[in-house]
UniProtKB/TrEMBL annotation:
It comes from the Bacteria. Coiled coil: none annotated. Residues 33-46 have a biased composition (Acidic residues). The lineage of its organism: Bacteria, Bacillati, Bacillota, Bacilli, Bacillales. It comes from Jeotgalibacillus proteolyticus. This is Peptide ABC transporter substrate-binding protein. One of its GO terms (molecular function) is peptide transmembrane transporter activity. Belongs to the bacterial solute-binding protein 5 family. The keyword Nucleotide-binding does not apply. Residues 26-53 are annotated as: Disordered.
Amino acid sequence: MKKKPLGLLLAIMLALSAFLAACSGDSASENDNNNENEAPEGEEGEATSGGTLTYGFETAPEGIFNPNFYGIATDAEILTLTDESLITYDENLQPEPGIASWETEDNKVFTFTFEQGVMWQDGVELTVEDWVFAIETLSDPDYDGSRYTNVETIEGAPAYRAGEADSISGLNVIDEYTIEITFDEARVNNLVNLWSYPLSRAQFEDIPVAEMSASPQVRQNPIGLGPFKVESIVPGESMQLVKFEDYWRGEPNLDSIVVQVLDSSTVVGALGQGDIDMISLAPVNGEEVEALDNVEVITYPGLSYYYIGFKLGTFNAETNEITEDKEKYADVNLRRAMAHAINRQEWIDAFFFGYGTPVDGPVPSNHWIAADSSELTAYEYDPEKARELLAEAGYEDTNDDGFVEDPNGEEFVVKFSHYQTTNPTFETRAQAIVQYWQEVGIQAEVEMTEVNLYYDMVEKDDPAIETFFGGWSTGSDPDPTGLWGSDKIWNYPRYKNEESDKLLADALNLEIVGDDEQARADIYAEWQKLISEDVPMIFISELEEIVAHSDRVQNVTYDVSGPNSPHEWSVTD
């Protein structure tokens, strides 16, 4: 066994974006960037051409294999193999040219130039019209995904979405490889917030926008720009990917990648027997896998945090407005009591086996905008404090059954939802949270939901979801607005606060922060203080990412944001 922990980056630019990568079972990360001061971790050597790598997954993909529509991290992990952004990021997560390069003088008007000869996997050349098509699709009122937030600041996008214009005025196509994009105003993050995944016009132009996400072009026969193309899919079980010989960075080393979905209980055996070459590990399997002679375990700093959310309201998808119309968890002292009731360190030790630490706010500690925990309202394990806050909020045991009633004397039962996969620890860890609440006198019960239904229920404010377990990961833009703005669909607690919105807007205002990163970080620290005081979520933990490689794997490297480009990967015989 060889284990190589990766040191933290000294200077990183990270940003919240949807476990995304939206949210997922237990891992989420995108981007392929390297550590500034250390060599990336993993086995490196002269690349061998040919061969097949078997890539294991403990959670089946939802099956939405296009960046413009996917919702969970498992699908995102597949997409890192099959598709690609126009922009890449350096070792500090600063944007740098990829397929597209850019120029701007004022952070409002950008001119982008595409590499010529970049091919879609169906043999059609990529042009800026495919990017225009993607932006128009995301701005269409019938678009059923969650990424309008990444295009809504383009001049004319809101009018297009409202049906008041036939085109987006801020998109000016100069030629097949050049486009000028004008935003509604100059902002610090216009570039890194901009949606940078094209959508093949040739593949999708005859499909109504409302039907795109369910189309064969997304579910069965996806076409991307990445190093591997989909050859076959057995839903919920496996995928066969073959190298795309005309990939724009060069022909991939591997001939193929087999994606295999495993039951959590079989992962250790599959690695030991050489049935799979590579997998992101659940912490429960870490120690056993470390003991295998033919496998290397690699850890690197995670960019995700895990939380318990409270449903405080509902989201109107037509108006993009949140209404805080749910009363059950409206009392902040109730939420604070429920936070103090949880022994986070004990829970992390029990279910994440030393691979995690408590987190006190809505930003992972590796993030450059993360406030110091001393500045935040920390909800340390304190059952007595929890009981005091319950009493202060009017929650008392009026019938001597050991559990509190609500301030009106009615029965009070917390319904706690958690996603279900083949991981056997998920229901157990959900029951442990419920037990913490019961120990301070709050009656609670667990509701487990299949993972591919779970986030759809959370996003659509299904009445069955009251409190819920989830996670978010980081991306390339340090602006948390997409997850916390009062008009954002990924604001899952449906938290609405004018002060929060103002702070998030100020952190992007060039007149307020200019190019001073510290000024921006200070505003984000104030925002984190506000969130920690209001407790729309109980922030639980941040984890190390854990991956396992068989001794066949070569040239796969990691840093704080994930693996290098798959076209560089190789295997030995």
